[in-house]
Amino acid sequence: MNPNSSFRLEYSEPNWPEVEHSLQEGNTERMLWFAFICVALFAIISLSTRTWERFQTSPMVISMDRNKLVWNTSFPSLTVCPHKRTDELKVEDYMDNHPKTFQTDQDRDDFRVFIERLARLTYENIETLPRNKTFGIPSSKYLDLLYELKWNFEPEMSSGAAVQMYIYETLTEFGICHSVNSLVARYNSYDYWKRNDWNILDHGDRVTVHPLDGEIYAQIINLSTAYDVYFHGAGDIPNISKQRYTFPETDYTTVELIALEIYTAEEARAFTTKQRKCRYQYEADEILTSPIYSFGLCLAECRMFFALKVCGCVPHFYRNRSLNE
């Protein structure tokens, strides 16, 4: 046998234990690299997701600063709710015009109690409304009945502001009230609801106050009954969770207010409502009872849906879209 060829044959034969060991080391290395890559991908995806969610929910840093060039402050609004709600003569005429419903003196007395409690109905006394003595009047007609029998409360107002301020009758969670210098009150008026109107209303120029203007007053006169007063911003409504002030009929009361207005920078309009966590007045796409948005309107609508969930009914002082559709 040729020794060279024998050497080649012996040299070319593989060493199987060494090959197997080499393959095992290669598989382990691949598994480690695969694990590292998976961990890296998970970290990248997790960090990217958290960064995106943070951008969608908290992209802004909120800071408060007094602009030295802006000194005009919006004049605050107030809502006056009279204690006297119904006209006794109108109530008597109503009962006289429905003799079949009010056949006895007891029926007439019960109706006086019913209409008075209905006119004063709020969340604080809603349990006092008689349930079995409604005289065949459906709840969908309660608001119409109250306006038919309401007492004519017509306060007058004068002010020292350069822009004229108006007083509007409005529906609130406290009943029929009157709001001064309000940009929201007309959207909750009885006539606006009855017309099934959803248009944006023109309220004229905003009433503002400058420090160099001195003291600016708004005087309400012809208040012929005791009343409650609620102070709030011009772009909002009175809130049942805020403090109210009660004044007797014969008192002359002076209230001094120090107003501080906080407004959002114009650049915030570029963000979504979810990002800036606030809404402008025209962003009312989720409000079902008004064409505009305000924080108070949103809270009132939440209470309305809660009442619907708990008792299966909607109080008459809320706008009921189902009656107009």
Overview of the molecule:
The chain is an alpha+beta fold and 325 residues long. The chain has a domain at 74-85 and 147-262. A hairpin with a 2-residue loop joins strand 4 and strand 5. The chain is built from 8 helices and 9 strands. The protein is flat. It has helices at 3-12, 16-57, 88-96, 105-119, 142-149, 190-194, 273-276, 295-311; strands at 73-74, 77-82, 156-159, 167-172, 175-180, 208-209, 218-221, 227-232, 245-247.
Q: Which parts are unreliable, with pLDDT below 50 for 5 consecutive residues or more? A: 4-12
The biggest beta sheet is recorded as: 5 strands, antiparallel
Fraction in helix: 25-40%
- Widest beta sheet: strand line-up: 4-5-2-8-9
Tally of extended strands? 9
Please identify the structural class as seen in this structure: alpha+beta
Cα radius of gyration in angstroms: 35 Å
Strand content: 5-15%
Whole-Å distance between the termini?
110 Å
Mean pLDDT level: 82
Order of helices and strands: HHEEHHHEEEHEEEEHH
Per the principal axes of the C-alpha atoms, what is the gross shape?
Answer: flat
Number of helices: 8
